[in-house]
Amino acid sequence: MKAILRRESGTVDITATADIASGDVIQLGDRVGIALSDAKGGELIALRTDGQFEVAKDTAAIGANVAVHWNTTAKVATATSGTGTIPLGTSTAPALAGDGTVLVDINV
Predict the structure, then answer these.
(1) Is residue 44 domain-shared with residue 65, that is, in the same domain?
(2) Long-range contacts of 30-39 (CB under 8 A, 24+ apart)
(3) Cα separation, 105 vs 30, whole angstroms
(4) 22 with 34, same domain?
(5) Could you tell me the pTM of the whole model?
(6) Which of 27, 33, 56, 99 has the greatest count of CB atoms below 10 A from its CB?
């Protein structure tokens, strides 16, 4: 059977298991998606799985081209991996300690 294009890559639909707000980072196994809209639990929602996103970060500096993780409890990006974090992507610009956000190329 030949391959049939069903959808351009970059988005995926999921059924929300809880309420989701636009911009929320959602874990999808070993990758993440960014919610494109709000959804109530049980509703279908589209998640973006590629692209550069400006996301909230912890108080530590993050250099450019650094692996970035998502702290699932604090809901912020961090350069520190460990318990309670999931891979988010790669920073595309440095963020100083005093900066509230960092630019991340997700799933890269």
Answers:
(1) no
(2) 30/87, 31/87, 31/106, 31/107, 32/70, 32/86, 32/87, 32/88, 32/89, 32/106, 32/107, 34/106, 36/11
(3) 15
(4) yes
(5) 0.90
(6) 33
